[in-house]
Amino acid sequence: MLPRDPRHPSLLSIVVPLFNEQASIDALIPRVMQVLESEGLNAEIILVDDGSADDTWDKMVAWRANHENLTLVALSRNFGKEIAITAGLDVTEGDAVIIMDGDLQHPPETIPAFLRRWREGYDIVYGVRRDRSEDGAARRAATKAFYRVFNRLSNTPITPDAGDFRLMDRKVVEAIRRMRERARFMKGIYSWVGFKSTPVEFDVVSREGGRSSFSRSRLFALAFDGILSFSTAPLRMAVVLGAIFAGISISAGLYFLGRTLLLGVDTPGFATIIVSTLALSGLILLQLGLMGLYLGRIYEEVKGRPLYLVRDLVGRAAAENAEPGAAARRHIKDLVRPPA
Ligand code: UDP
Ligand code: MG
């Protein structure tokens, strides 16, 4: 028997996290279906409701009534996009998995291009925004600065402009699924797993409806989170700074000792003492705070809570049987309340 062509997806999975996307969902599903149909793809679409407060879930259920290939997951509350994506990945069964936003900013028409590169042998095909002119100049500058700082501090370099819109081979998905850390900085996680990857350009369009969940402060928190998750350089800086200050104080000590021995005691010097004391205690507090940040994260991870809780699960994955999603399904099944 000939080996099955591993690069022909007998099943493609598409994961879409949704948070208050009632305005987009009715446009999203037909567009995705259209692409799947014209490409003749056998696909499952996994919609993850990340604790929406609007009618997102009801709309999902309504679409599911006529579309067998939809799998619906509802998380018990809003866990954030990163975790919603993880929940989606956990139920995928496809040979290749595509992640895309639910607001149609990631055009489904890019999917064939993703698949082409995957068939060429790439394990990760990531979407790169063709231009960022839709963002303001300030945001573009901030984004650029973040990538520069991140890549300077971390051993896991991340590619600017590559986001969650991507295709991943089954083996990449399985690798990512093994990373159960709570602080999920996806850009770092995608990069950490490695594998052969290649970009594909796409045009970002305006949201289909609703509004972005990522405010400026949430983006800043995300950036900060990312650095703390993928770099311990700030901790090492403490050692360097400590060494520098130790060096300065030893030389200063020797200098003042010599001066006193040669020239005798003189009283002025309060300013020096006060300034150096202030500077040093400031630095100590800063470093203590930094240690606290890392400690807090250790605490979060060490509690070992589940990453997410599932409120409802509708679709293929609800059935038992078949690898490789089975383990996750069993896990999810434990969390889903039994049907009434
Ligand atoms: N999203 C989510 N949980 C959240 C925030 C966002 O699942 O807590 C989803 C959202 O529904 C969308 C995608 O993540 O499908 C991207 O979110 P958004 O469009 O708000 O981000 P932006 O495009 O502005 O970066
Ligand atoms: Mg968006």
CATH fourth-tier homologous superfamily of the largest domain: Spore Coat Polysaccharide Biosynthesis Protein SpsA, Chain A
Q: Indicate the proportion of strand residues.
A: 5-15%
Largest sheet: 8 strands, mixed
Spatial extent as radius of gyration: 26 Å
CATH topology of the largest domain: Spore Coat Polysaccharide Biosynthesis Protein SpsA, Chain A
Tell me the layout of helices and strands.
Blueprint: E1 12-18, H1 22-39, E2 43-49, H2 56-66, E3 70-75, H3 81-91, E4 96-99, H4 111-119, E5 124-129, H5 137-153, E6 162-169, H6 170-177, H7 186-193, E7 197-202, H8 216-230, H9 233-263, H10 270-302, E8 310-314, H11 326-335
Parallel strand pairs: 1-2, 1-4, 2-3, 5-7
Antiparallel strand pairs: 3-8, 4-6, 5-6
Helix pairs in contact: 1-2, 5-8, 9-10
Structure characteristics:
340 residues, alpha/beta, 2 domains, 8-stranded mixed beta sheet, 8 strands, 14% strand, binds uridine-5'-diphosphate, binds magnesium ion
Q: Please, could you describe this protein's structure?
A:
This protein starts with 11 loop residues before the first strand and ends in a 5-residue tail after the last helix. 50% of the residues lie in helices and 14% in strands. It has 340 residues and is of the alpha/beta class.
Short note summarizing the structure:
The protein is α/β, with parallel strands linked by helices and 340 residues long. It is built from 11 helices and 8 strands. Magnesium ion binds at residues 101, 103, 105, 207, 212.
